[in-house]
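Quick start: what a row looks like.
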Amino acid sequence: MTLNTIRRDELPSLLLLPFPPSPSSRVLLNAAYRPPLEAAISTLSSFKKTDGPARLIVAVASPVLHGQFVRSKTLSWPDAQALLAGIYAIVSVVCAERKIATEIDGSPGSVDVSVVLVDHDRKRRFSPDFRPGIEANNTIVVDLATFATAYHPWRYIFSVRSEPGLELYQTYLKLAEGRQTLLHEQLIPVEGGLAMNVAQKDSSALPSQTHGCPVVCLGGTFDHLHPGHKLLLTAGALLLQVPHKDSAQSCRFVIGVTGDELLKNKKFAEFVQPWEARARAVIVFLSRLLQLSTRGWRDGLEPEIEENDGDFRASFRRGTITIQCVRIQDAFGPTITVENMDALVVSGETRSGGRAVNDRRVEQGWQPLEVFEVDVLDTEEISDETNQSDNFASKISSSAIRKQRAQAKAAAED
C-alpha cells in the first residue's frame, strides 16, 4: 500500500515527549507524562476510523546513547528498558481506565501505541545549513535528525505545552521541514505534566553500558499484541548489536511464537489468533522501530515479510537487521536447537524458563545465554483504582482481550 492509497486517517500520529525526569521513577514519570499521554490517546480514540485502530507513535527525547563516533554508540539497557516500562505502564493505565483498547489489531476507537526512544541532548545545536539525513548507528535507537528524516508523514503531531516541550517541538519541526505539508489543524498542543528540572548527567558517572549482541532471542504467545508484548519486543531489540550499514554482516532477532496446538486450552481459545497473524503482528510492530528510509511511509505502512510455514522473516536497514519469527511447540524453541545465540530476554513470569534453557544448553556442552529480565508493567503507584494490580492485569492480558471479543460477538448475536 503506497501513500497514494493510504487515507489520512490511516496514518500514524506523533506525540513528542520531552526529556524524562532525572533521576527517574514510576511516580515521577507518571507526573510528567500522564497528562500528554491521556490527551493524545483520548483525542485519537474519539476520531473513530472506518476500520481498525488509530496509531500513535510516542517519541521520547532523551540522551540515551553515549560514545563519540556513530559506529561505537552504547546505552544502558537497564535504564532504557525501565523508561520504556514506565511509559507503557502509563499508556496501559490510561487506556484501562478509559476503556480504550490498545492491541495492534484493535477495532475502531482503539489506539495502537508504540514507544520509540529518540537520542537527543538539549545542549545540541544545529547550524542553519544543517541538512538532516539517515545516520544509523550500531543500535536501534536513532537521533532526532534521523527520526525526523525517516518517520513521516503524520496524521497529527501532538506537542507538550512546556518550555522543554516547545523547545523540542520547534527543533523537530526545523529538522522535519520539507517532509510533509502540515495544516494548522494537524498540530495539536497538549498540556504537560509536572515540570521537572532535568539535571545533565556527569559523563564520568554514567551507568554501566550494555554491550550489544549479534543474536538475541525471546519467546511468547503474542496473541492480540498489547503493551506488555510491545515492551518485551522493544527491550529485546535494544540489545541488538547492529552492523554498519555498509557491512555484509547482520544481527538477528529470533522470536519464538507459540504454535496453535499449545493454545487450544486457553480461555476463549476460539478467539486466539492463528500463528501466522501473531507472527505477522510481531514483525509489523518491530518495523516501527527498525525501518529507516528518507521516503518514510511513502512505500507503505507494512514491511515485506518472507512467509514460510512456521518461519516468517523480514530484513531492515539494508539487511543489517533480520527479524525471524519461528513456531515453537515447547518451552525451549530454537534456544536448544541452535547453538549460535547470545542473549535471552525474559519477563518476571518467564524467569524460570530462562534458567531451564541455560541448564539444557550447558548439558549439551553449549555456552549459556546471557539473560536479561524486562521490568513488569507495574501500576500500583500510578493507578487511581483500588486493588490496582489485580484490576490492571485483568484488563490488559491477551485472555482479557479475547473475553472482550467473545462478549462483543455474543452481544451482536442477541
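That is the whole record. The chain has nine helices and 13 strands. The longest strand covers residues 54-62.
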